[in-house]
Write a structure and sequence with these properties.
By secondary structure, the protein is mainly beta. The protein is about 10% helix and about 55% strand. The chain is built from 1 helix and 10 strands; from the N terminus they run ββββββββββα. The protein has a 5-stranded antiparallel sheet with strand order 8-7-6-1-10, with no helix packed on it.
């Protein structure tokens, strides 16, 4: 299970679309739906209902490598394509922990290269603030 993390991948969609489920678990999930060049970012509740969404047309092209970076920290979700900020949100009720899963349907073709995951550690200043709040 992942809580605060960064995912950095090189992606190439040859045909069709794909989905990335982020922080998928009992609190719901973020669903990144890549379809016909458009990225739809969905916040899905545990019952499957979409509680928030945003769409980004012309997010990707077929048969072209691009750098995809996702940061999930607390309730914030940030997405970059080729180093350019493309999405930033902090929606109420966001899932705070879960797994990451890629999903393709019949006829979809996706290539992944150099897909890295790493944890975001709290800064020293954040640790000091927490210690001060709890009286340590």
């Amino acid at each position: 299970m992942l809580d605060d993390f960064v995912m950095a991948c090189r992606l190439w969609s040859r045909e069709g679309g794909f989905r990335i489920y982020v922080r998928e678990g009992p609190q719901g999930a973020y669903v990144l739906d890549f379809d016909a060049g458009t990225l739809a970012v969905l916040q899905v509740a545990p019952d499957g209902e979409i509680s928030a969404s945003a769409a980004y047309p012309a997010f990707y092209d077929y048969e072209d490598w691009y750098d995809f970076v996702l940061e999930a920290e607390g309730s914030r979700l940030i997405i970059y394509r080729d180093g350019e900020l493309r999405h930033e949100s902090s929606w109420p009720g966001a899932p705070l922990i879960g797994r990451v899963r890629f999903a393709l349907a019949g006829g979809d073709a996706l290539w992944l290269d150099d897909c890295l995951f790493y944890s975001i550690e709290p800064s020293a200043m954040d640790q000091e603030r927490v210690a001060a709040l709890i009286g340590s």
